[in-house]
Amino acid sequence: MVLDPTKHADWEIAEDAENRMKTVYQLADELGLEKEELLPHGHYVAKVDFDKVLKRVGNKPDGKFIDVTAITPTPLGEGKSTTTMGLVQGLGKRNKRVIGAIRQPSGGPTMNIKGSAAGGGLSQCIPLTPFSLGLTGDINAIINAHNLAMVAITSRIQHEFNYDDERLAKSNLRRLDIDPDRVELKWIIDFCAQTLRKIIIGIGSRMDGFMMESGFAIAVSSELMAILSVAKDLKDMRERIGRMVVAYDKKGKPITTTDLEVAGAMTAWMVSTINPNLMQTIEGQPVFVHAGPFANIAIGQSSVIADRIGLKLGDYHVTESGFGADIGFEKFWNLKCRYSGQRPNAAVVVTTIRALKCHGGAPIPVPGRPLDPAYKEENVAWVEKGTENLVHHIETVRKAGINPVVCINHFHTDTDEEIKVVRKIADAAGSRVAVSQHWLKGGEGALELADAVIDACNHPTNFKFLYDLSAPLKTRIELIAKEVYGADGVDFTPDALTKIKALDNDPDISKMGTCMVKTHLSVTDNPQLKGAPKGWRLRIRDILTFKGAGFVVPMAGDIKLMPGTSSDPAFRRVDVDVDSGKVKGLF
């Protein structure tokens, strides 16, 4: 007997379900993994040696490939991870050999307002505590590898400042002539720590380092996380890490991790991260957890490697992209699919009546405060107006040549009339539509969604990228702004234009995708603008370069690479039962 999600918290449901979990050995046997391909971390979590798996089954045909995305969410989120788990469970109920792939949560949102992204209700990834609190150490390894690069650059600046050329030579160092004002990286930490966005380091004597401005970003925004997302194998990862640009010299030449002779040591920290983590849904279907979140400031995709083995081992493979289709799906479409060569059969666009009301004129929800009572009352007009945002995202999926399926993630306050208007408008926009009650009923509640996805996967697609890599960077940014965001055009700051001009003369630009940084709370660069606004222009204030990952990163609006912690963070409700040692309060 499973617990009732209307009466029990997510962590209580997860804890109860964990009493009936399959061991990783059972999961591996059901997946067809061989003994040496499983790398257990206890009885219920394991890494999978992807290289051995692909050498054995790499010539098998791929299964059906489904991406899960969403409309523009409210600050509360619309249950995309929950829907991913629910769809996997629903397909399992239809006796399909199905595998899921989701991203490992960051400690920042887990201990802040968003939660751990394990799903919710009766559609979760378990065991919840290891999933939420570090798992097998991938993010910790990224932190160490990234901060080692920061140690390398800051110590080198100190030594070059203090030593003459003869003393440098005695230390087997050559002068790189690093510009302290052009160190591109920041330190990273996996919490939302707004007070660390800008800091001064090196305060003290010459022995305490070179005094300069620095700062912190959240761990999952690191280029190393992007590299983990797109790397094909360890060799590819090592080469990408070696291309990472850490700083520039005083003539504007890039200084890479290879120049700093730190790329090998960084890769040593990263070796174990390349193998996906194996977990399960509450109903026992396998789930790969690999790479990280934050599609607004990073690529925000489960890894190419997890998808590769999922497609070989399953008949259906369901992967997840961060936030709305303007951000996560666009990066899945134009970055991840480009690097992997994989082509999806369908994309699920998750929506809720709550979010549609928000886009249609209801008061914007504030995390930590009670939801406005208007959200619990029928308002078909708000819902109908809000579907402008839904249709916008359906059109984005269709521009990629992929079959869309709208999932109405059902809440008990939704009315038949509100659902009816969503069905009508989504159908007219060219999408299949399904109401899903996976949060309340698990896989049984997701059968309509599973059937719609199966049907979509049985129809042909006409996949095509939005832009060609031969297009100038400015043209690519304008295409994304106009075709995906609905902007009239793009305005660039002088600094951004200077960097674009330099990049257009860089021969590597034709190998690099465009990874936009933009708010997830609006299709525009203004988080307060809801729906599908017209008559606006995107503002690009800066351009970052991730040469290792193979991305140019345009920065839109005022979004930060280090989020802030709210006044009512989740960590206030997390504790440990000292008798059993079990963690409670996670969500």
Nutshell version of this structure?
The protein starts with 9 loop residues before the first helix and ends with a strand.
Describe this structure in words.
The chain is of the alpha/beta class and 587 residues long. Strands 1, 2, 3, 4, 5, 6, 14, 15, 16, 17, 18 and 19 form a twelve-stranded mixed β-sheet that branches. The radius of gyration is 24 Å and the shape is globular. The relative contact order is 0.16. It holds the Pfam family FTHFS. It is an enzyme of class 6 (ligase). Pathway: One-carbon metabolism; tetrahydrofolate interconversion. ATP binds at residues 74-81.
Question: How many extended strands?
Answer: 25
Shape: globular
N→C terminal distance: 21 Å
Low confidence ranges? none
- The name of the CATH architecture of the largest domain is 3-Layer(aba) Sandwich
Mean pLDDT: 95
**Helix content class:** 25-40%
CATH superfamily of the largest domain: P-loop containing nucleotide triphosphate hydrolases
CATH class of the largest domain: Alpha Beta
Q: Which band does the percent of strand residues land in?
A: 15-25%
Radius of gyration: 24 Å
Protein structure class: alpha/beta
Supply the number of helical segments: 20
In terms of quaternary structure, what is this? single chain
CATH topology of the largest domain: Rossmann fold
Main sheet properties:
12 strands, mixed
The total number of structural domains is 3
